[in-house]
């Protein structure tokens, strides 16, 4: 019981990375990739992604986005080969350290 509580506490201290509904790889043309994160239950949390494999976050601390970053608002259609680079942004992280950004999620798809 102690270990379960400790793990739950540790998980609550970081912004959780995004996960996709489809495993990466070859998919039917037009397949829709949906993204989600356990951190989305927190107010203000957003998912950002790029389809060219570049990081949606700039190296500076804070919510600095690259020019290629797109806010996730719904499933992404795979009509050509894409390299998704996904991060989750929490504007009010609970941990005293960290930037509010999740670890990256990297996914490649091709129709």
What would your notes on this structure say?
The chain has a five-stranded mixed beta sheet, with no helix packed on it. A two-stranded antiparallel ribbon has the order 1-4. Strands 3-7 form a two-stranded antiparallel ribbon. It starts with a helix and ends with a strand. The protein is globular and about 45 Å long. By secondary structure, it is mostly beta strands. The chain contains one helix and nine strands. The mean pLDDT is 90. 10% of the residues lie in helices and 30% in strands. The longest helix is centred in the first third of the chain and has 11 residues, at 2-12.
In short:
The chain has 111 residues and is mainly beta. It has one helix at residues 2-12, and strands spanning 19-20, 25-26, 31-33, 35-36, 46-50, 70-71, 76-78, 82-89, 105-110.
Helix-strand blueprint:
Blueprint: H1 2-12, E1 19-20, E2 25-26, E3 31-33, E4 35-36, E5 46-50, E6 70-71, E7 76-78, E8 82-89, E9 105-110
Parallel strand pairs: 2-9
Antiparallel strand pairs: 1-4, 3-7, 5-6, 5-8, 8-9
Helix content: under 10%
Q: How many strand elements? A: 9
State the helix count.
Answer: 1
Give the SSE string.
Answer: HEEEEEEEEE
How far is the N terminus from the C terminus?
45 Å
Rg: 15 Å
User: How does the overall form come out from the CA principal axes?
Assistant: globular
Overall pLDDT metric = 90
Query: How does the major sheet shape up?
Result: 5 strands, mixed
Give the strand line-up of the largest sheet. 2-9-8-5-6
Q: Could you say which structural class the secondary elements and strand pairing correspond to?
A: mainly beta
The low-confidence parts are none
Approximate strand percentage: 25-35%
Looking at the chains present, what oligomeric state does this protein adopt? single chain
């Amino acid at each position: 019981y102690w270990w379960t509580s400790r793990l739950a506490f540790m998980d609550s201290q970081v912004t959780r990375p995004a996960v996709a509904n489809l495993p990466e790889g070859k998919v039917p043309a037009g397949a829709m990739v949906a993204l989600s994160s356990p951190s989305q239950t927190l107010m203000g949390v957003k998912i950002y992604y790029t389809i060219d494999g570049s990081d949606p976050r700039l190296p500076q601390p804070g919510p600095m986005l690259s020019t290629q970053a797109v806010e996730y608002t719904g499933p992404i259609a795979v009509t050509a080969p894409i390299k998704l680079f996904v991060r989750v942004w929490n504007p009010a992280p609970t941990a005293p350290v960290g930037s509010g950004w999740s670890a990256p999620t990297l996914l490649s798809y091709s129709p």
